[in-house]
Design goal:
Layout lengths: L2 E7 L5 H14 L4 E5 L7 H10 L10 H14 L1 H10 L2 E5 L2 H11 L7 H13 L7 E5 L3 H14 L12 H16 L6 E4 L5 H16 L21
Helix pairs in contact: 1-9, 2-3, 3-5, 5-6, 5-8
Length: about 240
């Protein structure tokens, strides 16, 4: 069975860039890679409804923290069989956003920490009830909130279809979410974590990706997982 890595972080942290670097590093080692991203706004009706609500549609839907979390959870549940198959047929399965995003953003909205009832509820809903596959390791892309916010603005300026949603434009929410992510890492919530940071150049990102892939895949044998070590780097591009 292949190794499943979930990449987490604030909006604009650089998760997609790290996923691409990890996939490239694995491919250069001869490993097979399957990549996935959530929410699947264009592929799943639940994610689509959540995305529309984040932009002001569907009345007061966005105001319900639990309703939004259920929609995001159902999106992942709908992809569970696909992810399991990917783990059975690939050496490395990479996921851009996963269950921890639901826990971190919902807890932040409720102004709870990682030990609060919302995080426990997300685990019970997604893992225990809906049977969403548990990742082998999670990677937090940790960047300053102001850097993540600037990237969101720059992305929107270059692509009119990427207008910041209700979560992306809420600086206070992003700050609380960053704190919850750090608490999830400290508690080894759901699976072991590694942490990477942000810097100027792409070379450090490449080195970080290579280190993570070597650590998780070993000599290329799927399932060679170390537990709980942290690999830190200083590069994430948008």
């Amino acid at each position: 069975m292949g190794v499943m890595v979930a990449v987490e972080g604030l909006d604009g942290a650089g998760k997609a860039t790290l996923v691409a670097a990890l996939a490239d590093a694995a491919a250069r080692r001869g490993a097979s890679v399957s990549t996935h991203a959530f929410p699947r706004y264009d592929a799943d009706v639940h994610a689509g409804l959540a995305g529309e609500a984040l932009h002001g549609a569907h009345g007061d839907l966005r105001s319900s923290v639990h309703a939004m979390a259920v929609l995001f959870a159902l999106d992942r549940a709908g992809a569970a069989a696909e992810i399991r198959e990917a783990r059975n047929t690939h050496d490395l399965v990479l996921v851009d956003r996963y269950v921890a995003s639901n826990a971190a953003y919902g807890a932040a909205r409720e102004e709870q920490d990682a030990d609060g009832e919302f995080v426990a509820w997300v685990h019970a809903l997604e893992i225990d009830r809906l049977g969403v596959p548990t990742p082998d390791v999670q990677v937090l892309v940790r960047v300053p909130g102001e850097l993540a916010a600037r990237r969101v603005r720059e992305r929107a300026a270059s692509d009119p279809s990427r207008t910041p949603d209700g979560y992306e434009s809420d600086a206070a929410l992003q700050a609380r979410c960053a704190q919850v992510y750090d608490e999830l890492v400290a508690r080894t919530w759901l699976a072991p974590w590694s942490v990477v940071g942000a810097d100027e150049g792409p070379a450090a990102l490449t080195r970080t990706a290579e280190s993570l892939v070597a650590e998780r895949l070993g000599t290329g044998s799927p399932g060679d997982i170390s537990s709980g070590s942290s690999v830190r780097s200083d590069t994430i591009e948008t």
